[in-house]
Predict the 3D structure of the following.
Amino acid sequence: MAAIYLLARTLFRRVALLNAVSLAAVVILLFRPSEITQASFQLSFLAAGIIAGIAEPLLERTVEPYSRALEHLNDLTRDGSHPPKAAEFRIDLRSASNWLGSRVPSKLAQYCDQIVVIPCRISLRLWELAVLSIALQIGMLSLMARDFHRVSFIAPVANIPAVLLT
């Protein structure tokens, strides 16, 4: 799967992650068909499939427009290239930055954009982690119960600090 992804990136192609996951599973099963009964194969490809098929499209529709809107915030000409809600988000952030800049000492005023944008970036990344963790836990619930005889309700919350620590 990594080879498919890296090859596509070197050829300047956009990688359809779900296709790469599917192709990797087919290649593994061609050489070792018995892998389909192994819990490690099932859990690994189920997790990759959930990320590629559910979490990635969901994040592309919800978080990505706002993450892209944080880039080059002061460039007014870029507002039109964003969806309306993301453009409005950019305008609101610029307004907050200008408001903050008028109330802090002049030495800090030049950093107002970063003071406003950095918490937004952190919040969006935490939202991505939460969506990814919840999607994985819900999607893998049946296999985890079958193979490990447990269902963890705290896992979506516990995964976020664990991922941040690693």
Notes: The radius of gyration is 21 Å. The longest helix spans residues 112-139. The mean pLDDT is 88. The chain has nine helices and no strands.
